[in-house]
Amino acid sequence: MSIAKTVVLITGANSGIGYQTVRHLLASERPYHIFLGARSNDKSQSAITRLVEEYPRTSSELSPLVIDLESDDSIAQAHETIKAKTDVLDVLINNAGVELDGDGAENGLKTRQIFDKTWSTNVTGPYILTSTLIPLLLKSKDGRILFLTSGTASFELSTNEEFFLNISPEAGWPKKYQRELPSYKSSKVGLNMIMRDFYRILKNDNIKVWTVNPGFVVTGLGGNPETLKNLGAGNPDQSGSFVKDVVEGKRDKDVGKTVQQKWLYGDVLPF
Length: 271
Description:
Layout: E1 6-10, H1 16-27, E2 32-38, H2 41-54, E3 61-66, H3 72-83, E4 91-94, H4 111-137, E5 143-148, H5 182-201, E6 207-213, H6 225-230, H7 236-247, E7 258-263, E8 266-268
Parallel strand pairs: 1-2, 1-4, 2-3, 4-5, 5-6, 6-7
Antiparallel strand pairs: 7-8
Helix pairs in contact: 1-7, 3-4, 4-5
């Protein structure tokens, strides 16, 4: 008797943590049907080609999915694409995100545009996508929603000068440059509240909800990889493995919280 595949959608899965999560799911003993979300069909198909070459004997399958979180039409079309292949979604991983504080101005964006685009992708898009897909998640026997957040969104850690770039600069204005992330950090605070609302709203619907802090790792999100490494960024492979663990039930005791790999600040990120 064949085992039914767990149906998973991962946004931003063509690179970074999303891609590494797909890799670990393909290597799992459990069979999955993974919708690999990306902003273009070429990006999704290219990632699938690489993954099939790496895991030719996997019991899981991959389907391309075009999804742009800044477009309601794209979200609606992604919903139709999924429904054409399945009537149930077991796991939604809201992984896609942007960080424009570092180089947004260099690319011609004004401050308001940086904030608007960051919140549209990191908060509004995931909210609309999740709301759109809830009817499919409700049909799952073990529905799960994961939102990838950041340690920089913790109010408690923001008062700790030993935590990531929290040192107060010298008096005066404008400040000498240091890596400030105002739009990114605030968007992840907003995403945390989105998670808390969905956790409350879906508590009696057999859908588990978390935010996941993947840790500070090298991705295409935050600029030059070498700069990130110099700042202490780790390997996204470890983050992908951790996300897989959440999907497979290893953090079910912490539903409704921000889970993370055990480190200096514990295995649950303080809000």
